[in-house]
Amino acid sequence: MAAPAALQRSVVSPAGRHTASLIFLHGSGDTGQGARAWIKQILNQDMAFQHIKVIYPTAPARPYTPLKGAFSTVWFDRYKISNDCPEHIESIDSMCRQLTDLINDEIKNGIAKNRILIGGFSMGGGMAMHVAYRFHQDLAGVFALSSFLNKDSAVYKALKRNESVLPELFQCHGTADELVLYSWGEETNKMLKSLGVSASLHTFPNLNHELNRTEIEKLKSWIEKKLPVEAAKANE
């Protein structure tokens, strides 16, 4: 079978020397360009850095069961939008392979793996947790905004067998979220902590299934802490 085509992506280049990369995965039905535009609208400018390239890939359209099988740009399929059902592991694993190709593209560009962050909004954050905690435990960190993992997630199963140091998790969730309940995000945070992940959960009262400026600014500060500017080498 032919390898799937590389994921389309929208990129915000660093203002200076590129020494780190950030992969931001959009929510279900959105695109990389859409997620970038949403953040730009909230901040009144792109989320941009001196040294970090920001990559917004787009999920390929596929049939999505919660939409009665209609095609949607989703990272994986779900049997339903619930934390209490099995994961659609075939579609999750297939996308983990495609996102591994994206990580490897950055490594080929000379970026060390511990200088790459992955995360996203809603389904994008769930996808990022699968990629990092199951297959790429040497990434710099993971962020999950209004996201959750199913109760019997393959992520939890992988971490039960794990001995290595894990990427830190930065999680945000609105208490008024009616699509991905706050309790689902909180339960995910507690489970990952119990399995050895250093995880923070930032709570936003009255925030629904959306992003806001305070949240993006907190995320930006955390990104800069995890991926600080590297001092230029003497021979450069």
TrEMBL record:
Family: Belongs to the AB hydrolase superfamily. AB hydrolase 2 family.
Domain Phospholipase/carboxylesterase/thioesterase positions: 10-225
Matching PANTHER family: LYSOPHOSPHOLIPASE-LIKE PROTEIN 1 (PTHR10655:SF17), LYSOPHOSPHOLIPASE-RELATED (PTHR10655)
Entry keyword annotation includes Metal-binding: no
Gene3D superfamilies in the cross-refs: alpha/beta hydrolase
Protein name, UniProt field: Lysophospholipase-like protein 1
Lineage, highest ranks first: Eukaryota, Metazoa, Chordata, Craniata, Vertebrata
Compartments reported by the entry: Cytoplasm, Cytosol
Entries under InterPro entries matching the protein: AB_hydrolase_fold (IPR029058), LYPA1-2/EST-like (IPR050565), PLipase/COase/thioEstase (IPR003140)
Catalysed reaction equations from the record: S-hexadecanoyl-L-cysteinyl-[protein] + H2O = L-cysteinyl-[protein] + hexadecanoate + H(+)
Described function: Palmitoyl thioesterase that catalyzes depalmitoylation of CGAS and KCNMA1. Acts as a regulator of innate immunity by mediating depalmitoylation of CGAS, thereby preventing CGAS homodimerization and cyclic GMP-AMP synthase activity. Does not exhibit phospholipase nor triacylglycerol lipase activity, able to hydrolyze only short chain substrates due to its shallow active site.
EC id: 3.1.2.22
GO CC list: cytosol
Pfam families listed in its UniProt record: Abhydrolase_2 (PF02230)
GO molecular function: carboxylic ester hydrolase activity; palmitoyl-(protein) hydrolase activity
Keyword vocabulary terms for this entry: Acetylation, Cytoplasm, Hydrolase
